[in-house]
Amino acid sequence: MEEKQQDAEHALIRVSVRSLVEFVLRSGNIDSSSGGMMVKDAMMLGSRLHRKLQANEGDSYEAEVPLAGEFPDDGFTLLVEGRADGIIHDGESITIDEIKGVLKNVENMEEPVGIHLAQAKVYAWLYLRDHPDMEQIGIRMSYIHLESEKIRRFYESYGREELRIWFKDVLDEYRRWADMEVKWKKKRTRSIKKLTFPFAYRDGQKQLAGYVYRTIAQGKLLFIQAPTGVGKTITTVFPAVKAMGEGLGDKLFYLTARSIARTAACEALELLRKRGMAFKSVELTAKEKICCLDSPKCTPQDCPRARGHYDRVNEVIYELLRSRDVLSREVIEEAAEKGNVCPFELSLDLSLWTDAVIGDYNYVFHPRSRLKRFFGEGIKGDYLFLIDEAHNLVDRGRDMFSAQIVKEELLALKKQVAPWAPALERALMRCNKSMLAMKRECEDYQVREDGPGTLPIQLMNLSSQMEDFLEETRRDHEGLKRIRSQQVPAEVREAVLDMYFQVSFFLEICDLLDEHYVVYTEHTAEGRFRLRLYNVDPSANLQSCLKKSRSAILFSATLLPIDYYKKLLCDVSDPYAVYAHSCFQPEKLRVLIGRDTSSLYKRRGPQQYQRMAEYILEMARSRPGHYMAFFPSFKMLEDVYEELLRQKEGAAVRFLVQQRHMSEEEREDFLREFRETEQKTPGDSLLGLCVAGSIFSEGIDLRGDSLIGAAVVGVPLPMVCTEQEILRRYYDERGEDGFYYAYLCPAMNRVLQAAGRVIRTEEDEGIVLLMDERFSSYNIQSMFPREWTQTRICSLRTFPGEARAFWEERTKPEDHVSS
User: Fold this and answer.
1) Rounded to an integer, what distance in angstroms lies between the CA atom of residue 723 and that of residue 741?
2) How far, in Å, CA of 524 to CA of 529, rounded?
3) Do residues 626 and 677 lie in contact, with contact meaning Cβ atoms separated by under 8 Å?
4) What is the pTM (predicted TM-score) of this model?
5) Which positions of the chain have pLDDT values less than 70?
C-alpha cells in the first residue's frame, strides 16, 4: 500500500494516490459476485488500450503526467504521489482524464465507480495546488471495454475550495494512521538496535547469520543448505531483523510451504520479543481455513460479515494495531467475530501495517493470490524474503504458473446456461469447437508448436459474455433483482463465476508464454481432454517475484544439489550459496547402503520383496525402538508388507501402515504412536510403513527415541507420466540431462527428506538404511549431504552385524560423556 523512507529526525511517508483513496474511502460490501473484482483484473489487462486511447487524443492531451504533493505534519511529512492518465488542455480550462479498462458492458454504467472518481479528484487537487491562479478544474472518467473498445465517459467539474475541503478530510483520516506508523517504527528501530542473539552461538551459527546479513546489505540472493539442527529459523530471522533496524529493509516476509514451519517462525519472533524487540507480525491463513462459514461465499447475501465489511473494518484494524503485536490466527478470528468483519480480508489489511508477514508461498509468488498491495504492477518495496523449505518451491512454482482449460467443463457449462443465456451459450460452443479440433489431432498427448492457437481470442469473447451475464444476474444485499436473476438458479450463476476466474487465469498465463513453457493437449486418465500451459522451467517467473524484494534468502535442510535449485528457483547468474556447518556429531548417524536389493521395475517381484522385508526386520531387531520404512509407492509398500507379515513370526515388531487416504485425525493418531516412546510391550519395536514424498516423510519432528531409524526402500523416482516426460525431453533438447532434472533430483530430495526424520536434535542418534544398488553409485552418492561421513556399503548378510555394532558403539560410557 505504501512505501516509507525515514531519516533520523523526520519521516517521509510515501503513499500512492490509489492506495490513499482505496484505504480511506472504501465502503460497502465484500462481493465476489460483482464486477468489482473483475474490474481489478481488467485494469491489469488494459494498459495497451490506455496507450491507444491516449495516442488518439491529439496535441491538447498530455499523457501519463506525474503529480505529487508534500503535506507536513508533526514528526513526519506525507508525500502523496501518482501519475494521472491524462490532462486535457482546452484554452484556459484543464480537465483530468482517468481511464479504466473494464470487461463489463460500459453502456449499462450509470455513473463512475466511486473509488475511481476519488482518484481523479486527488489528481485534480494536486494539480490545482501547483497552479494557485486556477479556481475550477474538470474531471473526465473514461471507461473502455477491453474487447469491443467501446467508450463511456462521465464529466464532473469542481471548484478549488470544494476540492481543498474534500482532500483535507481524506488526508486527516489518513494522518492518524501515519502518525501511529511513524511512532511505532521509531520504537521498533530503537528496540532492534539493542537486540542480541537469544542463545549462545553454536558452531557455524554466527558465521551463517553474518552471511544472511551481508547478503541483505548487498541486495542479493542467498541459497542456504542448512542441515537439521543448525537453527535455520532463528539464524535467518535474527540477522534479517537486525538489517531492518539499520534501515536495510522495511518489511519481512517469512514464506513456507507448511504450517509447521510458520509455527517455527512465530516462535523465533517471540523469542526476540522476550529480549525486548518491538515487532508486529501477522500470520496469514488460507481463506478456506479461516472463513467463518463452512465454505467461503463472499457475497452480502450469503455472509453477514461480507455485508458492510468495508464500513467497519478500518476501526477493527486500528484497535488491533494499538493493542496487539502478535496477530495470530486466533487473535484475528476473535477480533473479526467481535467486529463482524471477514477474518481473511482483515488479515490481509493488517499485513499493510505489520513488520512481518508469515504465510504460504502463494502470497508472494502466485499470479492470482499474491498480495497486489505489495507486489502489483509497478510496485516495489524494501522487502526482505525469507523462504523456508525452498526445495518445495520448484514444484509449487511450476504449478502456480501453469494453467489449463478442460473441454468437458466448457461443454457442461454450455448445457447449464442454455436456457438462460443464448449469447453465452454460443461463446461456449465456439470454445468447445476449438477444443474439439485439438482433440481430433491428439492421440494420447501432443505438444503444440503453435501454442494455444486462436483459443485465447475466443476465451476473451467468452470472458466478456460471462462478465455481462454475471452483471445482469447480480443481486444486491436487499434482495433486488437485475434482469434475469429471478429465473437463473444460483448454482448456474456460481458455475459461470467459477469458469470466469478459470478463463481469466488462463488468459493471464497466456501473456507469460515463452521458451520456459510447453503447451500441450492430453487425454487424461479420467477420460477428459485438456489444453495445458505448463511452466517447465519456473525460474524466470519466480525471479520476477523475487526482484520485488530488496533481498531474498532461500533455505532448506535438503537443498541438494544446490546448483539444481539455483537454476530452477531464480534467473540471475550470481546468486550466493552457502553450506551451513552442522553442529551434529557425524558418528551419531550411521548410513548403511544395502547394495543387494533393487527396486528397478524389471526386477521387482517376490524375491526382492522378501529380501527387503528381511532388511527391515533386521533393522528393527538391532535395537528395540521406533523405526520407519519409506517406499516409492503404495503398491510396493503393500507388497513388502505382506512379506513382513509372513516373516514376522518370532520378531517383536508392531506395524503401523500409512493408508492411501488419511484424515487429519488419523495422521495425528499415527504420529502419536511414535511420540509415546514407552513400548506397549517391553523389548518390542514399532515400525511405520510410509510412502516417500508423502505426509510422513517431511515436516514431522520426531525427536529422541520417537524415531531411531529409517529405511528408504528403492530410489523413489517420480512416476512416469506426461509432465515428467515433457520435463525430461525439455532438458534433453537443450543439451542437458533430462533424467537428472525430471527424475533423479526429485527422487533424491525425497530420500533426504525421509532420512532427515532420524536426526532432529544434537542428542539424537540413529540409523539410515538405503536399500537399492543404485545408492552405491558415484552419481547418487555425490548428492549425499556432507555430514553423512559414516556411510558404509553392506549386504543382507553383513547388515545385522553393522547395525548392532553401531548401537554398541553408541552405548559405550565414553560416548555418553563426550556427547
Assistant:
1) 12
2) 6
3) yes
4) 0.91
5) 1-9, 33-50, 378, 475-486, 650, 678-683, 812-819
